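Reply to dn_fold:

You asked what the input looked like. This is it:
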Amino acid sequence: SSTRGIQMGAKDNSNAAVNTISYCTIATTGNANDFGDLTTLSGYCTGTGSPTRAFRFGGNVPSPAATYNTIDYVTIATLGNAQDFGDLTVAMFRNGALSGTTRALISAGESPASDGLKIIDYIEMSTLGNAIDFGDRVTGGQHPSGGSNCVRGVWAGLQNDGSPWSPLNVMDYVTIATEGNGVDFGDLVTPNMGMAMLSTGHGGL
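and this is what came back:
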């Protein structure tokens, strides 16, 4: 939001998934604070938000191995545990999300059945319910990184879906208000995967 940043889920230094939610007040400096807990342990998940809600999409745990189709949400201005929003169209992790003013788009990376998903799901952030199919990215692979100016969403970089698991320089874009497949945007300067992305417009702020 305009005042708080939220972090949801992760893997710790022993490679175990965690269910923690942390927050910071953007206008200050200092350590993060405890916000609450996710509904499940979750590593390799992704998130985005609106000015009022923050979301966590999918994720996995290494032992015993499990991959989730879970969508969690919190109200950013409060503290407390996450609540169930609905389900993704498939269980996924190593995915990437972005948001416009009303919609959040989630682009799959990996599922138990495939290392090279192209799936794009979307939700209406002010409601509750299951994700809906939006379309497909141009290229399948893991770790897509997303950013948005609230009109267009762009995913950049991937890990390809087979050995030698190398990074790719691809960029795809979609128009958030419509449904449809991704379109080639251009190439990154160098191949990358799992990047941190940001933009000058986000979530209707």
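Residues 43 and 202 are 24 Å apart (CA to CA).
Hope that clears it up.
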